[in-house]
Amino acid sequence: MSRSSPKNLAERYAFLQTELARLEHAYYVLDNPLLPDIEYDRLYRELLEIEVTHPDWVTPQSLSQRVGGVALKEFDSVTHEVPMLSLSNAFEESELIAFDRRCREGLHAEHVAYAGELKFDGLAISLRYENGSLVRAATRGDGTSGEDVTANIKTIRAIPLKLTGKDIPKVLEVRGEVFMYLKDFQKMNQQAAASGEKEFANPRNAAAGSLRQLDSKITAKRPLSFFAYGLGALEPQTWLPKTHEELLNKYVELGLPVCTERKVLHSVQEILNFYNAIGAKRDTLPYDIDGVVYKVNSFAEQAKLGYVSRAPRFALAHKYPAQEALTTVLGIDVQVGRTGAITPVARLSPVEVGGVTVTNATLHNEDEVRRKDVRIGDTVSVRRAGDVIPEVVSVVKDRRPGDAKSFQMPDHCPVCNSHIERLANEAVARCSGGLFCGAQRKQALIHFAHRRAMDIEGLGEKIVDQLVDQNLVRTPADLYRLGFNALANLERMGEKSADNLIQAINQSRNTSLARFIFALGIRHVGETTAKDLANHFQSMHALMDANMEELLSVKDVGPVVADSILSFMEETHNREVIEQLLASGMQLAVEEKVISAAVAGKTFVLTGTFPTLTRDEARDLLEKAGAKVAINISSIEGITPRPGHEIYGASKAALDSLTRSFANSLAPMRIHGIRLGLIGDESLEDRWPEGVSSWNSTVPSHRYGSPDEVAKLVLALTTDTFAFATGSIIDFDGGKSASPGW
How many Cβ atoms from other residues are within 10 Å of residue 537's Cβ? Predict the structure, then answer.
């Protein structure tokens, strides 16, 4: 019989419903996609095609009904068969101790077991299943009755339209929370901002607003999720397990999503440990919570304790300090970061957020101030997560006073009075006084002394901190005026170290023009660009006086780089420091390339160690000869380390990261990495038979590689075939990285 026959088509339709439900559960609940999206889409389209020809087969439980139906004029009211009560709150440890005492006294027990779980910051919902099918969903409302949001709930793919498993009760009301994962919320707001639509203030508002859409098609576009944590009506009562923990485990068997951050607790101390442990990782959780919940674990004991007014005696919500609060913007200032970044900061009327009194909150950049429309005098919502500086989340525009003032980005740095620049395609404005600005002083000095810049050995971060903090050094030029006594009196310095540092500073006067240019810390001017500028202009003064046209004539210097150089050189303070440096006795050599036909245009892979050179020195020699240099032979253990090889694996992962970083910082040189599997000659089997055997039995190629094959790959990477590639890391392992560990 063909698949198009009614019988077979009906079987196929039933299969698609079951299979798509399974795939959705794996994707949205278990976070474990079983098929590529394209394959899921193919199956879903097939389901829709069948429903077009057989509309009578479509039921409210069909997966096609998740997309939403006709928009409602208003929500119907639903009376809860079992009231959805709120919980009593605790904020202090004493309240928690009192709760435990009341439970023990009420049960005449020495110890009580509690189920500890998270208190989500979302919207409480009740899902009614009859014979395993979702028939109604309602909000909490006033606890007695809520709004019928069934059409909207059906669009949430984490919620099963039909329960799975064998032991399904006739009636089951599942209580839980609709929420948004933080990553989904952020992505949704980014998309809204890009299309000029209104953004939500926080995930809770987004979840609540999405569920209360009269048009379920709008809800279907919102990335809502769900966790089950409670029980309403139930038939038959004999289905009920003995404990709350067992109930949640049964929910999992039925295909309902349940949070794994839960634990059975047997004492006040364990309760406090749970509270503190969750609190410690609160800021790393993928969703918002505002506390934890403790419930007497035994349902029999819950029934014995009963209720008081609108809350159960057997449960308690233990709240964390609020991470979001309302306050008033008293002013908007700007701060200058270590790299010169100008950040608007709101001065606030003091408010407690997350257990800390907050008086300032970041506004990130000028565009963010405009986007959120934050004005002086506004009432704003302030959020603090972890130990980071609080940020202004949103403005309560209904409370905006008539005299609220808009923010104006200053033209000059508040620290050094240098002009503020904002390059094309950059959101961040920056102070242009890199060599003079007090806020950038330490960063500028550390960069100036770097081994790839002026190479002042011994001038590390701790010494720089002391020199700046004691006002001994304000600009790089001051380094060349330092006296022996000033250095010797620094903490942990001593006479010998002071003498060595002075020698290193003096030696740095004899350097190349390229190193000197790089040492200035001009934004977008890396080592390679500095060398190109040095070779083109031949002197520092020529570069200082260059115009836009002249700069654009330099190899690989585009408008952004040229604009950055001009802004830097136009700042009087920077020119003064450069002149002071030149007057200190700088001897800036222009390194001429000695082109060698043997290496010109070729790509070299440098790995291992050299007897007389560092890798950087070898690279410099090759560059002078006209070579293009690719570095780094890595290992697949950077991504799939063997047991006991943790440090080795971590070092190779770092090497991979270095390859990608060098592709940026050393451009236009082509930088590649090769991640090797097992490589050896015939003697390898004699030296390591067990390792070779294990490798050959698991690797798809069923063999190890040879040094000759690695050499051929390196040679291939030097050809024009790979002229457009850089920053790539090639797995050369016979397919091992795509197979299980060995």
Answer: 20
Kindly report, residue by residue over 353-396, the tens digit of the pLDDT.
866 788 998 888 888 888 889 999 999 988 875 445 688 888 88
In degrees, rounded to 5, the angle at the alpha carbon of residue 508 between the alpha carbons of residues 503 and 512 is 160
Query: With the C-alpha atoms ordered 160, 165, 168, 172, is the resulting torsion angle positive or negative?
Result: negative
Give φ, ψ of 564 to 5 degrees: -65, -40
Q: In this predicted structure, which of 96-100, 225-229, 282-286, 421-425 has the lowest mean pLDDT?
A: 421-425
Rounded to whole angstroms, the Cα distance separating 453 from 725 reads: 28
CA distances from 37 to 186, 305, 660 (A): 22, 49, 29
CATH number of 89-319: 3.30.470.30
* Helical (H) or strand (E) element with 628: strand 628-631
In degrees to the nearest 10, what's the CA dihedral of 494, 499, 502, 506? -170
Three-state DSSP string of 306-354: CEECCEECCEEEEECCCCEEEEEEEEEEEEECCCCEEEEEEEEEEEEEC
Task: In whole angstroms, give the CA distance from residue 144 to residue 310.
Answer: 10
Q: Could you say which architecture CATH assigns to the domain 324-399? A: Beta Barrel (2.40)
Q: How far apart are CA 151 and CA 205, in angstroms?
A: 19
Q: What is the pTM of this model?
A: 0.47
Residues recognised as catalytic: 119
Question: What is the rounded CA–CA span in Å between residue 37 and residue 14?
Answer: 21
Instruction: Looking at the structure, give the CATH architecture of the domain made up of residues 6-58.
Output: Orthogonal Bundle (1.10)
DSSP state of 127: E
288 vs 709: CA distance, rounded Å: 52
For residue 33, pLDDT over 90 is answered with no
SS3 655: helix
pLDDT given for residue 293 in this prediction: 95
CATH architecture of 603-738: 3-Layer(aba) Sandwich (3.40)
Q: Would you call 170 helix, strand, or coil by DSSP? A: coil
> What is the model's pLDDT at position 69?
46
Range in 23-37, 99-113, 353-367 with the lowest mean pLDDT: 23-37
